[in-house]
Write a structure and sequence with these properties.
This protein is of the alpha/beta class. It contains 13 helices and nine strands. It folds into two domains: about 10-215, Spore Coat Polysaccharide Biosynthesis Protein SpsA, Chain A (Alpha-Beta Complex); about 225-340, no CATH class. The chain has helices at about 20-30, 50-60, 75-85, 105-115, 150-155, 170-175, 190-200, 225-230, 235-245, 250-275, 280-290, 305-315, 315-340; strands at about 10-15, 40-45, 65-70, 90-95, 100, 120-125, 135, 165-170, 205-215. Strands 1, 2, 3, 4, 5, 6, 7, 8 and 9 form a nine-stranded mixed sheet that branches.
Length: about 350
């Protein structure tokens, strides 16, 4: 690396992505800026495949590469390691099976200089498998686009997001508030991190730039679920509970955490039913109740107010629409199989 401090640090955790990592890295170099302006921190999370052989080829040909090797500890630990050694003014988190838009980094750097905010949000799009079509996800509300907002203000307006990709985080903001990804959590670690960012940030702004392309894959963490993954999400509630008990937070800040509790409970029950484990329904239900976070209290805002009210009145009634929806999907898939002979 050159002695010039980079403007942005791009942190990439690597584990079992040999099929995708080249596309990701190619996109990071398909930019119209000097390599002195950004550093790429690749954290090898003990990957057993050939991903790092591919990464090494890029390392030999580019001056802005940093490779960190560690035993397999999960994506949260890998990202935290990247934060620790980063030098950029802003941090970008990129998943190795995704990629970024051509020449987008130049605009991100220029906007970070102009806006000088703690969090800059850009456009994210999804592109499934081999399809060329892309569609917008996590759109920013039109009526909030022209001003800088605090995380609490955005939450009260109904805007909250889980993923950390598609965003530039001011490094000093992350360091000052000691914001880190929780290690040991394998689902929704992004969501908890983003909640903490929204709790502490007073300067969040949106800029209309197509920047990040999400590429879901069936074997990826986003799309593959089993009962152990559902059950492990009870750990998320334990982590969230730590912050609920933090008396130094205001009611508005705790309101953001309560929204995260609702999201975690809702996701657990949807996924449990989607993998057809109705036999484990009461086990998960009891685990949620034992967490001490149900019923949900101190919620601020209107976005989930009625749903949370229903959840608090009757857990079973809240989950019933999830069951009906899953039965509908199962019948639809069965009918498709009968007609075509294909799943």
């Amino acid at each position: 690396m050159n002695d010039i401090a980079p403007k942005i640090s791009i942190i990439i955790p690597v584990y079992n992505v040999e099929k995708y990592i080249a596309r990701c890295l190619d996109s990071l170099f398909n930019q119209n800026i000097s390599e002195n302006l950004y550093e790429i921190i690749v954290v090898n999370d003990g990957t057993p495949d050939s991903s790092m052989k591919i990464v090494s080829e890029y390392d030999r040909n580019h001056s802005n590469f940093i490779i960190i090797n560690q035993k397999n500890r999960g994506v949260s630990a890998a990202r935290n390691r990247g934060i620790e050694i980063s030098k950029g003014e802003y941090l970008l988190f990129v998943d190795p099976d995704d990629y970024i838009v051509e020449d987008s980094l130049d605009t991100i750097i220029s906007q970070s200089r102009i806006c000088k905010v703690e969090i800059l949000i850009f456009n994210s799009l999804t592109q499934f498998f081999n399809s060329k079509e892309k569609s917008f996800i996590f759109g920013f509300p039109q009526n909030l686009r022209d001003k800088t907002h605090s995380g609490i203000e955005l939450s009260k307006e109904g805007y909250m997001r889980g993923p950390v990709w598609g965003i530039a985080f001011e490094r000093q903001f992350i360091i000052k508030n000691n914001l880190r990804f929780f290690e040991g959590i394998i689902n929704s670690e992004d969501s908890i991190f983003m909640s903490m960012c929204f709790i502490y940030s007073s300067q969040i702004k949106y800029f209309n730039l197509d920047y990040y392309i999400v590429c879901p894959r069936f074997e990826g963490a986003t799309l593959s679920w089993d009962f152990n993954r559902v059950k492990n999400m009870l750990k998320n509630l334990a982590v969230i509970g730590y912050y609920v008990e933090n008396s130094s937070l205001t009611n508005d800040q705790k309101g953001i955490i309560q929204k995260n509790i609702y999201t975690a409970i809702s996701l657990m029950m949807k996924k449990l039913l989607s993998i057809h484990r109705l036999d484990k329904y009461f086990e998960i239900k009891q685990g949620i109740k034992k967490s001490g976070l149900y019923p949900i209290t101190n919620y601020q805002g209107d976005q989930f107010k009625r749903k949370i009210h229903l959840l608090n009145i009757s857990f079973d009634l809240f989950c019933f629409p999830f069951l009906i929806r899953q039965i509908y999907y199962d019948i639809k898939n069965l009918w498709h199989f009968v007609k075509t002979g294909q799943k």
